[in-house]
């Protein structure tokens, strides 16, 4: 790396210059944000219908296990005092906006990228808690929730990868090389583990 490149990378890490992203990364934010927004929108609409009519059955309530209605009626569906998907309506829309801005050539300061990483970390942590509640406490599964989980997981790992590779998050060269080549492994493994947990949790039901 030339001295000019080193100086530029150092300036970016210290917030002295904006850090951009590839079009593929920007599209990833747009697509995952749109998927999460769609899920949040549908769940919010169904939640309002359920509040109007307690006998309403959401379209994704397919059987005793795949039952969005049971999820929506649970205490865990409104952790912050309002329906969880309303939080998704705001946050996923913000992710889409960031992705569109990157497609238009936007460059963000280091603190902005760290903020995005922190937001996606919170998102994946919250989704993990909701997964546990869904599988082991509520004993039901919501397909739209699953879509939001997948979108958030992919978003988190690729944002983290971007920040490591760009020097936003200091990391050894070996880790940067790993993220350069194998970022896709992490969300695939993460989602695969969740799939296995879902499969084994209701194995008797799936195989009956």
SSE diagram, text form:
Layout: H1 3-13, H2 23-52, H3 68-72, H4 84-103, H5 110-138, H6 143-165, H7 173-182, H8 185-201, H9 203-207
Helix pairs in contact: 2-4, 2-6, 5-6, 6-7, 6-8
DSSP strand count: 0
Tally of individual helices: 9
Largest sheet: none
Query: Do you know the CATH topology?
Result: de novo design (two linked rop proteins)
Shape: globular
- Low-pLDDT sequence parts: 1-11
CATH homologous superfamily assignment: VKOR domain
* Radius of gyration over all CA atoms, rounded: 19 Å
Order of helices and strands: HHHHHHHHH
Termini, distance in Å? 60 Å
Beta fraction of the residues? under 5%
CATH class: Mainly Alpha
**Structural class assignment:** mainly alpha
The percentage helix is over 70%
Mean pLDDT: 91
Number of domains: 1
The CATH architecture would be: Up-down Bundle
Condensed summary:
This protein is mostly helical and 208 residues long. It is 72% helix and 0% strand.
Explain how this protein is built.
The chain is mainly alpha-helical and 208 residues long. It has a single domain, classed as Up-down Bundle (de novo design (two linked rop proteins)), CATH 1.20.1440. The chain is 72% helix and 0% strand. It contains nine helices and no strands. Helix 2 runs antiparallel to helix 4 and helix 6 crosses helix 7. The longest helix is centred in the N-terminal third of the chain and has 30 residues. It is globular, with a radius of gyration of 19 Å. 32% of the residues are buried. The N terminus is likely disordered.
